[in-house]
Specification:
Elements: H1 3-32, H2 43-62, H3 71-74, H4 83-102, E1 111-114, E2 117-120, H5 121-148
Antiparallel strand pairs: 1-2
Helix pairs in contact: 1-2, 1-4, 1-5, 2-4, 2-5
């Protein structure tokens, strides 16, 4: 595996561990709680969206495998426990690493058309990290709001 892809996989795994730690820390009530402000989401919904987005970017846009995705449903997701979410994170991270392992140095500059824009393979990988970190921040703030309510 290219060193930068190994690093990318490690960063994603660390971010995902933090996300699952937040879900676990707030418990069932906290993970489904939606802050009383416009356009906010529960921690569980944000976590669901984050991991489904990773799958879409990596599997469909990077590797060319069409996936079924219901993006609006990701923001209304809820659960009575976190077992399914943990399983989903584990499966998608494994698929991500498998795809990253196949990349060669010459692949990083290749372009893909995504949402009408040409982006490089390297950009896709970095964007997944950025997107995951962004939503981790949202979940950290939501956790603080939950604890302070």
């Amino acid at each position: 595996m290219l060193p930068q892809m190994k690093t990318a996989g490690s960063i994603l795994a660390a971010l995902q561990a933090e996300i699952l730690g937040i879900v676990e820390a707030v418990g069932t009530d906290g993970m489904n709680w939606v802050p009383p402000y416009p356009e906010t989401n529960s921690i569980y919904a944000l976590a669901t969206h984050t991991i489904q987005s990773q799958l879409w970017w990596i599997k469909e846009n990077l590797d060319g495998q069409k996936i079924e995705r219901d993006r609006p449903a990701e923001f209304t997701a809820s659960a009575t426990d976190m077992l399914l979410l943990k399983k989903r994170f584990s499966e998608i991270q494994a698929q991500t690493v498998e795809i990253l392992e196949k990349l060669a140095a010459e692949d990083l500059g290749k372009t893909r058309e995504v949402k009408g824009k040409n982006v490089t393979v390297e950009w896709i990988v970095l964007h997944v990290i950025e997107h995951t970190a962004l939503h981790l921040g949202h979940m950290q703030i939501t956790k603080q709001l939950w604890e302070g309510r």
